[in-house]
């Protein structure tokens, strides 16, 4: 089958050919005709299989036959969980729609909101957005949905993991009831299906890859090593193997910074990307890595989804993820579009249970290889597929104490004052009280408007959400939290240009 047989117009076929693609991937082969026919679609496919092009191509085809979007209106809304993924999808829309007279925009947090408002003022046919920034824009009457025709939830499973369910529910309530709905996800868990019940109508379900399966083109192996020896071991592998590039995953932002400094001290050009980095720094690091200027990119799980790096040869799990599904998304950064890749996991004695969870999920015992000079002093126990399943700890809601709004803090402070009064303690010295006895303690930069809407999670591009920054410049990355793909198919659109940009917006 070729793209010519899928019902796409000449401008789209020209754009596809310019990217060097001629054969649709399995997800594209099934999804494109279904979307063109106007059906609601639920599609499960790993990132890297071309699912972005699977919905952008038919959407462009459908929109080309209608009227342009009026001022402040959008015709298609594509929701993504992270800034990086939003930029990638936006690049895909621009790449495939370059021979069409359709307009598009990408909005997310971390950058100024005014330029985004100015672009929306003219109306856009396709809007790619993260939930938090979209809600901000709607609250300021910068975007309306009266003429919305199509809604897309991309990486729906990750959006639920990141705690965006409430924002998504609010957004859906604002949309016209008559619309086409598309859900694309790596998996369809029970939670995803619950969300789908109130969203899609008589959907066509598409699944083209086994759940939690890694691409067959990725060579996976485990390297037992003591925790303190992980950094020197990584240095040895990079130098001895003369690695051109590698994406290295750490569990924490602090760990990413520490490892980056170690690599740089060894003469290896490296950069870190995580939720505490400014959007400008993250964009610069990604651009440098894609251009080959940065040899090693050290990331938290923010980079596990939404990164499309052509011919990435190595992925290293410096730390194993707490959530076994994130392992599949991590190693899915290599072996994309039919290319080969290598995924190496450093495993210390205390990570055996995490390794076992991953192996049971993938139903595969990963081969082990010790590196001479780095044999672990603490034994890394052998694993089996039939050990009892450990209960997975639920992800903490993003609305943790560190992300409380000013009103919440104020109320808590007031409650504490009352409790002290009951027990005869009174307010502590130095706690100034306003007239009327209200506690004056507030977070920096807080204001009434922010307090009313500060519960919203922000997409830091990582899944590392935080409350929205205040007008006085509070960091958009305070209280950040972790986020997180596989590929198949040769010579197929992966969703756009490999040199995807990553511009973004406000605190979302």
From TrEMBL:
CDD domains: DEADc, SF2_C_DEAD. Residues 1-29 form the DEAD-box RNA helicase Q domain. Its EC number is 3.6.4.13. Residues 376-508 are annotated as: Disordered. Residues 32-206 form the Helicase ATP-binding domain. Belongs to the DEAD box helicase family. RhlE subfamily. It catalyses: ATP + H2O = ADP + phosphate + H(+). Residues 489-508 have a biased composition (Low complexity). Residues 233-382 form the Helicase C-terminal domain. Pfam families: DEAD, Helicase_C. The keyword Hydrolase applies. It is found in: Cytoplasm. The gene is rhlE. The lineage of its organism: Bacteria, Pseudomonadati, Pseudomonadota, Gammaproteobacteria, Cellvibrionales. Keywords: ATP-binding, Cytoplasm, Helicase, Hydrolase, Nucleotide-binding, Ribosome biogenesis. GO terms for molecular function: ATP binding; ATP hydrolysis activity; nucleic acid binding; RNA helicase activity. GO terms for biological process: response to temperature stimulus; ribosome assembly. InterPro entries: DEAD/DEAH_box_helicase_dom, DEAD/DEAH_RhlB, DEAD_box_RNA_helicase, DEAD_helicase_RhlE, Helicase_ATP-bd, Helicase_C-like, P-loop_NTPase, RNA-helicase_DEAD-box_CS. This is ATP-dependent RNA helicase RhlE.
